[in-house]
Amino acid sequence: MIQTKLAELMVTTNYSKNHKLREPKKKWLQYQEPKTLDTKGIIEKIDELYPKNRKIVALSGGKDSGVVFHKNLDIIERAFFIKTNVGVQATEDFVKDQCKKYGIPLDIREPAPHAFVYVAICLEAGFPSAGLHDMIMSFLKYKTMLKYVTDPQHKGKKPILLSGVRKYESTRRKFNYNQPINIDSDRIVFACPIFYETDEDVYRYYIENGLNRSSVYGWAGTSLECGC
After folding, report:
1. CA-to-CA distance for 123 and 128, rounded, in angstroms?
2. What is the pLDDT of residues 94-112, one digit of tens each?
3. 198-203: long-range contacts (C-beta < 8 A, 24 or more apart)?
4. Which residue of 15, 38, 65, 66 has the lowest C-beta tally within 10 Å?
5. Long-range pairs for 15-19 at CB < 8 Å and ≥24 separation?
6. CA torsion 61→64→69→72, rounded to 10°?
7. Are β-strands 181-184 and 188-191 bridged in parallel, bridged antiparallel, or unpaired?
8. What is the mean pLDDT of residues 11-35?
Protein backbone atom coordinates (compact mmCIF):
# COMPACT_ATOMS: atom_id res chain seq x y z
CA MET A 1 0.00 0.00 0.00
CA ILE A 2 1.26 3.47 -0.92
CA GLN A 3 1.00 6.05 1.82
CA THR A 4 0.34 9.64 0.84
CA LYS A 5 2.63 12.02 2.71
CA LEU A 6 1.48 15.57 3.15
CA ALA A 7 4.84 17.22 3.62
CA GLU A 8 6.49 20.47 2.76
CA LEU A 9 7.78 20.40 -0.77
CA MET A 10 11.50 19.64 -0.87
CA VAL A 11 12.82 21.39 -3.98
CA THR A 12 16.37 22.07 -5.09
CA THR A 13 17.10 24.32 -8.05
CA ASN A 14 20.88 24.64 -7.91
CA TYR A 15 23.79 22.34 -8.63
CA SER A 16 26.49 21.66 -6.08
CA LYS A 17 28.96 24.50 -5.69
CA ASN A 18 31.62 24.70 -8.42
CA HIS A 19 30.16 21.72 -10.28
CA LYS A 20 30.83 21.99 -14.01
CA LEU A 21 29.77 19.78 -16.87
CA ARG A 22 32.53 17.58 -18.21
CA GLU A 23 31.22 15.92 -21.32
CA PRO A 24 32.43 12.37 -21.93
CA LYS A 25 33.67 11.11 -25.26
CA LYS A 26 30.55 10.20 -27.17
CA LYS A 27 29.95 6.47 -27.49
CA TRP A 28 27.15 4.50 -29.01
CA LEU A 29 24.18 3.73 -26.82
CA GLN A 30 24.35 0.44 -24.98
CA TYR A 31 21.08 -1.43 -24.62
CA GLN A 32 20.19 -3.95 -21.93
CA GLU A 33 17.45 -6.53 -22.11
CA PRO A 34 15.31 -6.79 -18.95
CA LYS A 35 14.62 -10.00 -17.08
CA THR A 36 10.94 -9.83 -18.04
CA LEU A 37 8.96 -7.37 -20.16
CA ASP A 38 7.12 -5.75 -17.27
CA THR A 39 8.02 -3.03 -14.77
CA LYS A 40 9.30 -5.53 -12.21
CA GLY A 41 11.67 -7.20 -14.66
CA ILE A 42 13.05 -3.87 -15.89
CA ILE A 43 13.69 -2.63 -12.34
CA GLU A 44 15.32 -5.95 -11.37
CA LYS A 45 17.72 -5.65 -14.30
CA ILE A 46 18.71 -2.15 -13.20
CA ASP A 47 19.41 -3.39 -9.67
CA GLU A 48 21.54 -6.17 -11.14
CA LEU A 49 23.56 -3.79 -13.32
CA TYR A 50 23.93 -1.09 -10.64
CA PRO A 51 23.53 -2.48 -7.09
CA LYS A 52 24.18 0.98 -5.62
CA ASN A 53 21.71 3.05 -7.59
CA ARG A 54 19.44 6.01 -6.98
CA LYS A 55 16.15 5.82 -8.85
CA ILE A 56 14.92 9.24 -9.99
CA VAL A 57 11.74 9.78 -12.00
CA ALA A 58 12.04 12.24 -14.87
CA LEU A 59 8.72 14.07 -14.63
CA SER A 60 7.23 15.98 -17.54
CA GLY A 61 3.71 16.57 -16.24
CA GLY A 62 2.18 14.06 -18.67
CA LYS A 63 0.38 10.76 -18.24
CA ASP A 64 3.29 8.41 -19.02
CA SER A 65 5.82 9.87 -16.59
CA GLY A 66 2.94 10.26 -14.12
CA VAL A 67 2.20 6.53 -14.29
CA VAL A 68 5.89 5.67 -13.81
CA PHE A 69 6.00 8.05 -10.84
CA HIS A 70 2.91 6.57 -9.17
CA LYS A 71 3.83 2.93 -9.86
CA ASN A 72 7.26 3.30 -8.28
CA LEU A 73 6.62 5.55 -5.28
CA ASP A 74 7.98 2.88 -2.96
CA ILE A 75 11.42 2.72 -4.62
CA ILE A 76 12.16 6.18 -6.03
CA GLU A 77 14.34 8.60 -4.06
CA ARG A 78 13.75 11.79 -6.01
CA ALA A 79 12.01 13.37 -8.99
CA PHE A 80 13.70 15.46 -11.67
CA PHE A 81 12.16 18.21 -13.81
CA ILE A 82 13.88 20.19 -16.55
CA LYS A 83 12.72 23.78 -16.66
CA THR A 84 13.48 24.54 -20.30
CA ASN A 85 12.45 28.22 -19.97
CA VAL A 86 10.45 27.88 -23.18
CA GLY A 87 7.56 26.15 -21.43
CA VAL A 88 4.63 27.26 -19.30
CA GLN A 89 4.52 27.79 -15.54
CA ALA A 90 1.42 25.61 -15.08
CA THR A 91 3.36 22.45 -15.92
CA GLU A 92 6.12 23.21 -13.43
CA ASP A 93 3.51 24.01 -10.77
CA PHE A 94 1.75 20.70 -11.44
CA VAL A 95 4.99 18.73 -11.00
CA LYS A 96 5.68 20.54 -7.73
CA ASP A 97 2.16 19.76 -6.49
CA GLN A 98 2.53 16.04 -7.30
CA CYS A 99 5.86 15.79 -5.47
CA LYS A 100 4.41 17.63 -2.48
CA LYS A 101 1.38 15.33 -2.42
CA TYR A 102 3.53 12.20 -2.18
CA GLY A 103 6.46 13.63 -0.22
CA ILE A 104 9.04 13.04 -2.94
CA PRO A 105 12.02 15.45 -3.10
CA LEU A 106 12.13 17.34 -6.41
CA ASP A 107 15.18 18.61 -8.28
CA ILE A 108 14.53 21.33 -10.89
CA ARG A 109 17.33 22.17 -13.29
CA GLU A 110 17.64 24.61 -16.17
CA PRO A 111 19.73 24.61 -19.36
CA ALA A 112 22.81 26.81 -19.31
CA PRO A 113 22.91 29.53 -20.44
CA HIS A 114 19.19 29.09 -19.85
CA ALA A 115 17.12 29.37 -23.03
CA PHE A 116 19.25 32.01 -24.70
CA VAL A 117 20.63 29.61 -27.30
CA TYR A 118 17.10 28.56 -28.24
CA VAL A 119 15.91 32.16 -28.44
CA ALA A 120 18.89 33.11 -30.62
CA ILE A 121 18.09 30.28 -33.06
CA CYS A 122 14.44 31.35 -33.26
CA LEU A 123 15.36 34.99 -33.90
CA GLU A 124 17.90 34.06 -36.56
CA ALA A 125 16.20 31.19 -38.39
CA GLY A 126 12.64 31.03 -37.12
CA PHE A 127 10.96 28.33 -35.05
CA PRO A 128 12.96 25.07 -35.38
CA SER A 129 11.58 22.47 -37.77
CA ALA A 130 11.50 18.71 -37.14
CA GLY A 131 14.96 18.43 -38.67
CA LEU A 132 16.44 20.50 -35.85
CA HIS A 133 14.65 18.61 -33.08
CA ASP A 134 17.68 16.60 -31.91
CA MET A 135 19.95 19.66 -31.85
CA ILE A 136 17.46 21.72 -29.83
CA MET A 137 16.84 18.87 -27.39
CA SER A 138 20.59 18.51 -26.92
CA PHE A 139 20.80 22.16 -25.83
CA LEU A 140 17.70 22.14 -23.66
CA LYS A 141 17.53 18.65 -22.19
CA TYR A 142 20.45 16.30 -22.90
CA LYS A 143 23.21 18.52 -21.51
CA THR A 144 20.97 19.47 -18.58
CA MET A 145 20.43 15.79 -17.76
CA LEU A 146 24.12 15.02 -18.16
CA LYS A 147 25.13 17.75 -15.77
CA TYR A 148 22.47 16.64 -13.29
CA VAL A 149 23.50 12.97 -13.16
CA THR A 150 27.17 13.90 -12.72
CA ASP A 151 26.45 16.26 -9.83
CA PRO A 152 28.45 15.41 -6.66
CA GLN A 153 25.17 15.05 -4.73
CA HIS A 154 24.89 11.57 -6.28
CA LYS A 155 28.34 10.48 -5.13
CA GLY A 156 28.32 6.83 -4.06
CA LYS A 157 25.15 5.98 -5.98
CA LYS A 158 24.45 5.62 -9.69
CA PRO A 159 21.54 7.89 -10.66
CA ILE A 160 19.00 6.08 -12.83
CA LEU A 161 16.49 8.26 -14.68
CA LEU A 162 13.14 6.48 -14.83
CA SER A 163 11.37 7.66 -17.98
CA GLY A 164 7.84 7.35 -19.32
CA VAL A 165 9.06 6.50 -22.83
CA ARG A 166 7.15 3.62 -24.41
CA LYS A 167 8.20 1.64 -27.49
CA TYR A 168 4.81 1.83 -29.23
CA GLU A 169 4.00 5.38 -28.15
CA SER A 170 4.72 6.61 -31.69
CA THR A 171 6.49 5.57 -34.89
CA ARG A 172 9.51 7.64 -33.89
CA ARG A 173 9.75 5.99 -30.47
CA LYS A 174 9.42 2.53 -32.06
CA PHE A 175 12.57 2.98 -34.11
CA ASN A 176 14.61 5.15 -31.73
CA TYR A 177 14.39 2.91 -28.67
CA ASN A 178 15.41 -0.75 -28.96
CA GLN A 179 15.30 -1.75 -25.31
CA PRO A 180 13.89 -0.26 -22.09
CA ILE A 181 17.34 0.25 -20.56
CA ASN A 182 19.69 2.63 -22.37
CA ILE A 183 23.20 3.49 -21.18
CA ASP A 184 24.59 6.58 -22.88
CA SER A 185 28.39 6.92 -22.74
CA ASP A 186 28.27 5.23 -19.32
CA ARG A 187 27.05 8.52 -17.85
CA ILE A 188 23.29 8.74 -18.31
CA VAL A 189 21.29 5.60 -17.60
CA PHE A 190 17.67 5.62 -18.70
CA ALA A 191 15.22 2.97 -17.56
CA CYS A 192 11.71 2.90 -18.99
CA PRO A 193 9.52 0.80 -16.64
CA ILE A 194 6.39 0.93 -18.86
CA PHE A 195 8.32 0.51 -22.12
CA TYR A 196 6.17 -2.34 -23.43
CA GLU A 197 2.80 -1.04 -22.24
CA THR A 198 0.15 0.04 -24.74
CA ASP A 199 -1.94 3.21 -24.70
CA GLU A 200 -4.78 1.11 -23.32
CA ASP A 201 -2.60 -0.20 -20.47
CA VAL A 202 -1.50 3.30 -19.51
CA TYR A 203 -4.95 4.88 -19.68
CA ARG A 204 -6.47 2.01 -17.68
CA TYR A 205 -3.93 2.49 -14.86
CA TYR A 206 -4.30 6.24 -15.15
CA ILE A 207 -8.08 6.16 -14.77
CA GLU A 208 -8.30 3.34 -12.19
CA ASN A 209 -5.90 5.18 -9.88
CA GLY A 210 -7.44 8.62 -10.36
CA LEU A 211 -4.24 10.19 -11.66
CA ASN A 212 -3.95 13.66 -13.15
CA ARG A 213 -1.64 15.41 -15.56
CA SER A 214 -0.80 19.05 -16.15
CA SER A 215 -3.82 21.17 -17.03
CA VAL A 216 -1.87 22.38 -20.07
CA TYR A 217 -2.62 19.07 -21.79
CA GLY A 218 -6.30 19.99 -21.74
CA TRP A 219 -5.87 22.77 -24.27
CA ALA A 220 -2.47 22.07 -25.86
CA GLY A 221 -2.24 18.26 -25.93
CA THR A 222 1.34 18.47 -24.58
CA SER A 223 3.21 19.89 -21.59
CA LEU A 224 4.67 22.63 -23.84
CA GLU A 225 8.03 22.32 -22.10
CA CYS A 226 9.83 22.07 -25.41
CA GLY A 227 7.25 22.98 -28.04
CA CYS A 228 7.83 19.73 -29.95
Report:
1. 10
2. 999 999 999 999 999 988 7
3. 198/166, 198/168, 199/168, 199/169, 202/63, 202/64, 202/67, 202/166, 203/63
4. 38
5. 15/109, 15/147, 15/148, 15/151, 16/151, 16/152, 16/153, 19/147, 19/150, 19/151, 19/152
6. 180
7. antiparallel
8. 72
